[in-house]
Amino acid sequence: VQLSVGQGIATPAPLPITVTSDSTAAALRGTLPVRFAASEGGTWTAQSLTPWLRVLTPSGVQGEDVSVEVDPAQVGALTAWTTLEARVRISGTTASPTTPTSPVEAVVNFRREFAEVEAIGPAVIIAGQVNHVIVRGRGFAALQSPAARLRVNGLAPAVSDVTRLNDQALRVRVPAMAGGPLNVSVEALLA
């Protein structure tokens, strides 16, 4: 844990927020502690400097935290599997004497680690009979139940039809189907 104490408000340690395919909206939220260097505290205001991060508590007093949230409507558009940095500016006024403090910038590090399908093999399966395919991608280890998030031609397979081989591979039993494309995807709760 790291805190840098400056002239008035301590800069909070970076806040990590990571979401996976199983994450709910609650995982998009976090708090940044606001602590004044002076024991008498003061009041503060906070504003996001990043379009996809919202400040839920824009003002408060010593001992209250800044609540933030990654905008759920923008999660799908944010770069996956990369740490994105957002900033929140916190400004304050000490209680005694009443003096404005130098603003600090708190950092929120966001990662969207939704499971992704990159390839399916074999490239050809036989129509009219049960087949097994290997689904390759990433993020499968974070899925509580791969069958609950996987979609084969738009339908969720039975739990017994999906075996997680590792973080990057699933073995899927595909029921007999007529000829045509086989579409496999992974759904995220937040998508």
Description:
The chain is mostly beta strands and 191 residues long. Helices cover 2% and strands 46% of the residues. It has one helix at 146-149; strands spanning 4-5, 10-11, 15-20, 29-33, 42-48, 53-55, 59-61, 65-70, 84-94, 99-100, 104-113, 116-121, 131-138, 150-152, 162-166, 169-174, 184-186. The strands form five sheets. Strands 3, 5, 7, 9, 10 and 11 form a six-stranded mixed beta sheet that branches. A four-stranded antiparallel beta sheet has the order 12-13-16-15, with no helix packed on it. Strands 4-8-6 form a three-stranded antiparallel beta sheet, with no helix packed on it. Strand 1 and strand 2 (10-11) form a beta hairpin. The longest helix has 4 residues, at 146-149. The radius of gyration is 23 Å and the shape is rod-shaped.
Number of helices: 1
Q: Kindly report the oligomeric state of this protein.
A: single chain
What is the helix/strand order?
Answer: EEEEEEEEEEEEEHEEEE
The level of helicity is under 10%
Q: Any idea what the shape is?
A: rod-shaped
Q: Unreliable runs, pLDDT <50, ≥5 residues? A: none
Biggest sheet statistics: 6 strands, mixed
Q: For the residues shown, what is the average pLDDT?
A: 92
Radius of gyration: 23 Å
Strand residue content: over 45%
